[in-house]
Amino acid sequence: MSTFADLSFSDEEVITLYLFGVIDKMRTLKNIYTYAVRHLRDWFPRLPSYVGFVQRLNKVADVFAPLLTIIQQESGHLSAQTAWLIDSFPVALAKQGHRFKAKVAPELADHGYCSTKKLYYYGVRVHVVGRAQAGTLPSPDYIGVTGASDHDGKVFDQIPPKLTNNVLYGDKAYQRPDADEVRKVQNLTVLTPVKKQKGQRDLEPQDQWLSTAVSRVRQPIEALFGWIEQQTGIECAAKVRSYNDLMVHVFGKLAGAMFFWNFLRASA
What pTM was computed for the model? Predict the structure, then answer.
């Protein structure tokens, strides 16, 4: 809204450059901008300074979440009977001892622990519910971001009305004390590995079999997280300096990754 604002470099160009960089596995804004200066000047003649580029990108931070929704909607619909897989992964603004001094994006980020990676960190947790697909990665249906301290089971409580008439596979964090009620009200069966009871040394054979079967079914969502991290480097957000910057980092990288997976990998 500034009197001297230069809008000759459009929002569409800002978004296009960023998504191109993500798809091309550039991990930082500096790398994306440097590549554009060196190789894409003919296509983006009004490219501003690096500071101007970052400011413009942060101003359109709210675009990337709905853009991700559109990308997933246009990728095609799976059968409503396809099972759901649920899990989360960390996005760390600061790790281990450095986390105590971190204060970026306090509107959302906080201190937490990721048991899978044995990591204490300051940041956020990205939660994904995806449809299982035979022979390939799951297709995300729901994606949400919470503070690092929010437990997986607590987040599950926020979305049950949308999870009906199906089976959902998760890890032990998603065990439901009200599983029978959920099954009756929503026709949703939640399957998780069996926890040992206090003082129990070994699981019963049937419980061990169930735990192994559930872990095998939900393994593809862990593979999805691994691929997203390999493609985008999303789990390291050490360069993030604001809330809008964090939203660009999370939803922008997810949008770029899923656009590549849904529309470009066949020709890559």
Answer: 0.91
